[in-house]
Automatic annotation (TrEMBL):
This is NAD(+) kinase. Gene3D superfamilies: Probable inorganic polyphosphate/atp-NAD kinase, domain 1 (3.40.50.10330), Probable inorganic polyphosphate/atp-NAD kinase, domain 2 (2.60.200.30). Signal peptide: none annotated. Pfam families: NAD_kinase_C (PF20143).
Length: 233
């Protein structure tokens, strides 16, 4: 089995992976498209995993802890994890992702899409449609969070004080009028029109973001492929 080690300290795992009988693919020296790994080893915390998923979106990830905060990390040592990979003693869990589309641009997220006012001195004004039907009238606030079940324990929870297990979560951040948060079927399509902007749109912790101008719309929906996380058996 070929593995790619990902994270600031991932090089520390190389000898352990080789000792377990795994072949280590070097990210910098070997183009992934020429020597594609079977598994990406994310060595860090939850943020490291999100970065790994953004760079290698279609390859299963095993998440090993090298950070104080890592809710997704498997609870075992790297040595035991590598032996499990070698002996195929694992299962692959598929979790939904979401995407935001703005013109020809697109961002994909594991946790959440965040739409936020660019200038914190001024509220963002916007309208929301779900499957073509408008929700409320114009909303004024600091923005919107659309989360997956995996991401519902993050920013979404800080706004709504709740989490969910299936579907898409739609949370209105600090709106001036009462706007009830929603948990929608995962196949619903959310459209947001910016009536006062511009606004910034973020996907997880990615450095790339979108700038959406006043009068423009974005579309948020389920992504066609899930994230794949390896769990020990």
């Amino acid at each position: 089995m070929k593995v790619l080690l990902f994270g600031n300290d991932a090089h520390k795992l190389k000898n352990k992976a080789i000792k377990a009988g795994l072949e280590v693919v070097e990210e910098k020296s070997t183009p992934v498209w020429l020597d594609k790994p079977d598994v990406v080893v994310s060595f860090g915390g939850d943020g490291t995993f999100l970065q790994a998923e953004a760079v290698f979106p279609y390859i299963p990830k095993i998440i090993l802890k090298n950070s104080r905060i890592c809710k997704l990390c498997i609870k075992t040592t790297p040595e035991k994890a590598f032996l499990a990979l070698k002996n195929k003693k694992y299962k692959v869990e598929k979790l939904p992702k979401i995407e935001v589309i703005y013109g020809k641009e697109k961002l994909v997220a594991v946790n959440d899409i965040v739409v936020h006012n660019k200038d914190p001195r001024h509220g963002m004004r916007y309208k929301v449609w779900i499957d073509g039907g408008q929700v409320n009238t114009e909303i004024i606030g600091d923005g919107v969070v659309v989360a997956t079940p995996l991401g519902s324990s993050g920013y979404y929870r800080s706004i709504t004080d709740s989490i969910f297990e299936t579907g898409l979560g739609l949370a209105f951040n600090n709106s001036t009028e009462q706007s009830d948060h929603m948990v929608l079927n995962e196949n619903r399509i959310i459209e947001i029109e910016i009536t006062r902007g511009p606004v910034h749109v973020f996907a997880d912790n990615q450095t790339k973001y979108l700038v959406v101008e006043e009068g423009e719309r974005i579309k948020i929906k389920k992504h066609k492929t899930p994230t794949k996380i390896i769990r020990m058996i």
